[in-house]
Design goal:
two-stranded antiparallel ribbon, 17 helices, 9 strands, elongated
Length: 424
């Protein structure tokens, strides 16, 4: 028996509540087990319990063994001198208050089903990516979906932390912060870091001055990314190289190293050169992008904003140094939806929180409901376990569960884990 499990069993009343008695024989009736206290002091506050003929209201302390009271030095702590009940798994020592009165003690060992303990131990001890993957099929699908809807706000709040940090760094400049976050997510994990460094080294204010000229935007971005330091033979990269040399000197720019970008084991359409060209096209073709995003109310409006293609040079190239067959380098729908999920939706959510606009917060959640579910390693694990997401809200919630519950084996804090343990 572990302490966190014991507290959970008490909190959820996962034990036989009939014929409860103190160690000195007084009957116990539970009305309220109390509020779980995660700070210092007794474990549960404001419980309501009838002991014998007296109804008590106060605090409850839990221990695996009654002697843990002494081990934790509660006998000398004033905050433990007025508890109404000491709940233990096993009683190995009689206890007394400082005035010599015995501490009312309830022993729960014989009231707890072994099934509860065994189910919890199976979660903690197995090496599955998802601890409950062998038993989650017993949980009704409507319950799972309802639970996923309940935790999506946690997912958005976790994502909000980085955005709020960006806003603080940029003196609440929403456009600059959005530019940095959008650039970071244009790297699609593999090149997320160099893309963010590129944006940080190439301020939006400088980009904005040249947004009407796609060649100058590409010169700035490719130059700052380190891709214009090579020797070229084709006219287009030579033109960008010359343009960048002028702009670099004009704005005293410092670029990043080309070696930071990853190309190995990557489909050519995802090469950083193509993503940078698409990012340049988005900047060039978009006017007041952030304002339009905040005003949008449906994914189709957002998808339309991101339907851009790299400039014509890239129709026949994936890199500067090798021509290929002709293919228009559009941003694909899956990539656009990824950007909406990971950049736009969290920004709308933070914007709503910042300005006290509940409608915007709700819109962020509604957008996720209307988008296709993500396909990645985590969602594949859930699908194999029998939980297939129907939309992006569910896939994002499943990612939240995996990262912040499953990976830490926090099964007791998960609604699905609770259902399985409770319904053996």
């Amino acid at each position: 028996m572990l302490e966190d499990l014991f507290q959970y069993i008490w909190k959820m009343k996962l034990f036989d509540t009939n014929n409860l008695h103190t160690t000195d024989g007084e009957s116990i009736t539970l009305f309220q087990v109390g509020l779980h206290n995660l700070n210092s002091g007794p474990d549960f506050l404001n419980a309501k319990i009838k002991i014998g003929q007296t109804l008590w209201a106060g605090n409850v302390e839990l221990h695996i063994k009654s002697s843990d009271w002494l081990l934790h030095k509660h006998q000398s702590d004033p905050s433990f001198q007025n508890i109404i009940l000491h709940v233990v798994y096993t009683d190995d020592k009689p206890l007394f208050y400082a005035d010599g009165k015995p501490i009312k003690t309830l022993v729960l060992k014989n009231h707890i089903s072994n099934d509860v303990i065994q189910k919890y131990q199976s979660f903690k001890q197995n090496n599955h990516n998802i601890a409950c993957e062998k038993s989650i099929s017993s949980v009704p699908k409507p319950f799972v979906h309802t639970y996923l809807e309940s935790i999506i706000v946690k997912r958005l709040e976790h994502k909000s932390q980085h955005i709020e940090k960006l806003l603080a760094e940029n003196q609440q400049h929403w456009e600059q912060s959005f530019y940095l976050q959008l650039a970071s997510n244009f790297g699609f994990k593999v090149n997320q870091v160099p893309f963010e460094l590129l944006a940080r080294n190439t301020p939006l204010g400088i980009i904005a001055k040249h947004k009407e000229n796609i060649h100058q935007i590409e010169a700035l971005l490719f130059g700052q990314a380190g891709f214009l330091n090579d020797t070229f033979t084709e006219s287009y990269p030579l033109m960008l190289q010359n343009e960048y040399a002028y702009l670099k000197k004009k704005f005293q720019l410092v670029g990043i190293d080309k070696h930071l970008w990853k190309l190995s084991r990557m489909r050519p359409v995802n090469f950083p050169t193509i993503r940078i060209a698409q990012f340049a096209a988005l900047i060039h073709q978009s006017s007041h992008l952030f304002s339009k995003i905040i005003a949008a109310e449906h994914p189709n409006e957002l998808i339309k904003l991101f339907k851009v293609a790299a400039s014509p040079f890239w129709d026949g190239h994936y890199t500067f140094d090798a021509a290929t067959h002709q293919l228009k380098k559009n941003i694909g729908k899956a990539a656009i939806e990824n950007l909406i999920i990971n950049t736009i939706v969290p920004f709308i959510f933070v914007y709503g929180k910042h300005y006290g606009n509940e409608d915007k917060c709700e819109l962020a959640i509604e957008l996720l409901e209307k988008l296709s579910p993500e396909k990645n390693t985590i969602t594949q694990l859930w699908t194999l376990a029998g939980v297939k997401p129907n939309n992006a809200l569910q896939s994002q919630a499943l990612i939240e569960l995996k990262n912040n519950h499953c990976d830490q084996k926090k099964c007791l804090q998960c609604g699905i884990g609770h259902f399985i343990i409770k319904n053996n």
